[in-house]
Amino acid sequence: MERIKAFRGSDLRCKGWRQEALLRMLENVLENGENQKELIVYAALGKAARNWSSYHAIVDCLKNLNDDETLVIQSGKPIGIFKTHPFAPIIIMANCNLVGKWATSEHFYDLQEKGLIIWGGLTAAAWQYIGSQGVIQGTYEIFSTIARMHFNGSLAGRFILTAGLGGMGGAQPLAGVMANAAILCVEVNEARIDKRIEVGYLQRKTADVNQALSWIDEAREKGESVSVGLLGNAAEIYPELVKRGITPDIVTDQTSAHDLMYGYIPAGYSLDDVKRVREQEPEKLEADARSSIAREVEAMLEFKRRGSIVFDNGNNIRTQAFQHGVQDAFTIDIFTEAFLRPLFCRAIGPFRWVALSGDPNDIHTIDRYILEEFAENEIATNWIRLANQYVPFEGLPARIGWFGHGERTKLARAVNQMVSEGKLSGPIAFSRDHLDAGAMAHPNIMTERMKDGSDAIADWPLLNAMLNCSSMADLVTIHSGGGGYAGYMTSAGVTIVADGSAEADMRLKHTLDNDTSIGVLRYADAGYEEALDEVNKKGIRRVVT
Ligand code: NAD
């Protein structure tokens, strides 16, 4: 079968731009994904559709869908078209949601085997993935916050150790270079290293740990940035660095440690070994993966004792190690609570937009608008300048930008106006990561140690999704965790299309205002001062009981 790429240009294959936009977003996640043949986009098993027949059925539905109809998708499979009205979403989805007691990885794998469910990742099944760029600003903001908190504002001459160069982890080397650091990324799959070099996210590659360290040292001495991909297994390399007495300044990991069957590669295993053992002795694979993770986390804890800043970057690595008996795994910080929560309290999070025509100039035009109209917003303007300099486009040209309440609406409505005036070559799709203010409950990532103890309450993302439907968004989705994330998370996603119409202006205004308002209210409800301040400053209507 021919490789799928997102359709470009101004011709429509559907009955309107809303449907065409969502079809291009679906094609785009596959174009950017890690394993198109299996429909896998990222995060080990995060898929765009249940299977190929579901994919083709979705394409067919989108091509024939009228403006007053809604397509309903369950775990990547289209199940029906419903007559609604022109202000209803074009698509609603629920992916991978299991009833509490059954939300375990065992049930998930069993149901996946039977073809009844998929893990949709956050943005894979929701067709919002924009390549590694989707997390790059988040990673950059984490590094910059650490620089401010611990290194007098600069990472020049500093050494970051991490692992995993997959769909999301692949953003780390570029984010490290943007933050002026020397970053070493351990990756067990050479093809993943090559892919990051090819797309311009990674500079150097070696399988020799001495060579890797000498490149890092050289850059540190000169105060220059460098990114090095080291072919190796993190469960072996991290303890080896401990043994050598090397203490990086910052340590994390972004392997798919959340998934012991399809994600994390145990020490001593080749990629072929993993496939074979998974088929023949799945329990052995799980046990070996967990004990390797425990070794890696023990090394991370030793780095921490020696003074490194160590954090979990959202892959459940501490949970896996803890289950293997690493008692103090949770003394490692989670990145959200440690570095990003003050931003989420103000609903400042990973907003993104995609140029549906495929013309990169549209993104550059929007960049210029942001630099002019948001000149006082240091986070946004600093980022847009850096992104222009460093971040290559993957698939349909796209941009991520951490904007908050009111700002997202202002930007999106201005862009919609530009589309209507012909200043852009086509419509723009706006979405955001599910890991955003009110949109995710995950007690070991997003909502760890909430001030009021509300970590595990999933009402918030569910309300967020229903509110987005009521606010006329074009696509609304509810996800829960699959694989090793089963039982750990629930999240909501949203996409709205700026096609230049007055209806789009209304959809953008209501959806974006409400999406960020409920995000702020989630944190205000938990008692965070920053959120309460935002409620007052921005006039968000909070009911006090
Ligand atoms: P991915 O499956 O595309 O890539 C994981 C990479 O890790 C692969 O390239 C794999 O070869 C490598 N790897 C596995 N075991 C290894 C080992 N022992 N040593 C070295 N390399 C190893 O996954 P991804 O999309 O890059 O996501 C990585 C993790 O980050 C997932 O757990 C995902 O859920 C999580 N995630 C976090 C955030 C966030 O905001 N912090 C966002 C997205 C994803």
Outline the structure in words.
With 545 residues, the chain is an alpha/beta fold. It has a domain at 133-331: 3-Layer(aba) Sandwich (Rossmann fold). The chain is 43% helix and 16% strand. It contains 18 helices and 18 strands. Strands 3, 4, 5, 13, 14, 15, 16, 17 and 18 form a 9-stranded mixed beta sheet that branches. Strand 1 (40-42) and strand 2 form a beta hairpin. Helix 9 packs across helix 10 and helix 13 (360-373) runs antiparallel to helix 14. The longest helix is centred in the middle third of the chain and has 24 residues, at 282-305. The mean pLDDT is 97. Residues 34, 42-44, 135, 138, 163-169, 186-189, 192, 233-235, 254-258, 263-265, 313-315, 435 line the site of nicotinamide-adenine-dinucleotide (NAD).
End-to-end separation? 58 Å
Uncertain spans, ≥5 residues at pLDDT below 50? none
Number of helices: 18
Largest sheet: 9 strands, mixed
**Percentage of residues in strands:** 15-25%
Give me a quick take on this structure:
The chain has helices at residues 17-32, 52-64, 105-113, 133-150, 172-178, 190-198, 209-222, 234-243, 271-280, 282-305, 317-323, 335-345, 360-373, 378-390, 407-420, 459-470, 502-525, 529-538, and strands at 40-42, 46-47, 69-74, 77-83, 91-95, 159-163, 182-187, 204-206, 226-231, 250-251, 309-312, 333-334, 349-355, 398-403, 428-432, 440-441, 475-480, 490-498. The protein is of the alpha/beta class.
